[in-house]
Amino acid sequence: MLASRPVARNGKKTVAVIAGDGIGPEVVRVGVGVLERLIELRGYPIEIVPLDVGAERYLRDGTSWPPAIARFVREQCDAVLLGALGDPRVPDLGYARDILFGLRQGLDLYCNIRPVVCLHDRLMPLRGRRAADCNFVVFRENTEGIYAGIGGTLRRDGIDEIAINEDVNTRRGVERIVRAAFDWARRHGKRRVHMADKSNAMPHAHGLWHRCFFEVAADYPDIEARHLYIDALCYELVRDPSPFEVIVTCNLFGDIVTDLGAALQGGLGMAASANVHPGRVSMFEPVHGSAPPLAGRDLANPFATVLSVGMMLSHLGWPEEEVRLVELVRNAIEAGRCTPDVGGSLGTRAAGEALIAAL
Ligand code: IPM
Ligand code: MG
Q1: Which ligand 1 atom lies nearest to the CA of residue 251?
Q2: Domain coordinates of the chain in residue numbers?
Q3: Quick one: which atom of ligand 1 is closest to the CA of 273?
């Protein structure tokens, strides 16, 4: 169990920032700019602390996720803002997994909440559909499944090589994410929750998902509970995303389906996410990766990070700021004050400055 975090440190909330690799520092500069401007405008008691982890640190001293930093985040912080991790100079990406899973699993951030909201008709890639047809949230289990890290390799590189990654599903783990999805649906006035699994092919692991989903659903008679196999969900999302409001699924399927979702909302530059353990220190990051070919070129779309900052402010107790930031991003897209991937002609920095000016 995690130690519960101290309630108040000079009455301030502490936000740790990991700019990360590739385009990470560029988009995080915008995200932090938004945060600093809001602190200035509204007097929010937030302290921003940069953390020195990522590829540079790893290449410098071989450290990926040092225990002292892990402890600092767990005991002293309220939120973490993460840019992106991944650097071609470290091909095995072990350091990036140490950091990402050090946060997600180390802090038991079991809810990976990924809104799939298309903010403007121009961004909608499906013929005959409008932005309003794509407005749902994915609750991705974030601590177990195939990501649990259990497995191994035998007779490596030979013709007889055996490679195993175990899919770990616990009743506790499944129940809590399903419950989080229904609670969120109820709090936000949603009418239905879909659960996607592959219980037809994986009767043990995903049979558990199927049983747990309908058991938990019985506690929410006001909300319709529907089951879909994950392949059928992918099909339906592209055919017509409009019936979906909340989707809950396992770690791997949530990873895949949220990239599909990103395509429906205008690309990875628009997809935000929260890695949450309700009531505890949580982590916020854009869904996109470090995009090494775009790094340092002022091309990356900073809006996924801005929207993630919105989710962070909501977690810290200012949900109205999330609503405002979503509207600001929508207005920026409408006015074309954005990067080329979403139809504008501004660089990362200028798109960020325009948005900050609009605050
Ligand atoms: C994501 C990413 C990560 C994941 C990778 C970088 C390990 O794809 O956050 O969606 O699979 O969770
Ligand atoms: Mg992914």
Answers
A1: 12
A2: 1-110+277-359, 116-271
A3: 9
Q: Is 198 a catalytic residue?
A: yes
Q: Give the Å distance between the CA of 104 and the centre of ligand 2.
A: 13
Pick the closest to residue 143 from 234, 298, 275, 51 (CA basis). 275
Condensed to tens digits (0 to 9), the pLDDT of residues 15-45 reads 999 999 999 999 999 999 999 999 999 999 9
Q: What are phi and psi of 201, to 5 degrees?
A: -105, -25
Q: Between vectors from CA 117 to CA 113 and to CA 122, what angle results, nearest 5°?
A: 150
List of residues 6+ apart from 50 with CB closer than 8 A: 16, 17, 18, 19
Active site residue 222: no
**pLDDT tens string 315-336:** 999 999 999 999 999 999 999 9
Q: Is 255 a catalytic residue?
A: yes
**Ligand 1 lining (C-beta closer than 6 Å):** 100, 255, 287, 289
Domain 116-271 indexed as CATH 3.40.718.10: yes
Q: Which ligand is nearest to the CA of 286?
A: 1
Clarify whether 259 is annotated catalytic. yes
What type of residue sits at position 354?
A
The domains spanning 1-110+277-359 and 116-271 adopt the same CATH topology: yes
1-110+277-359: which CATH architecture? 3-Layer(aba) Sandwich (3.40)
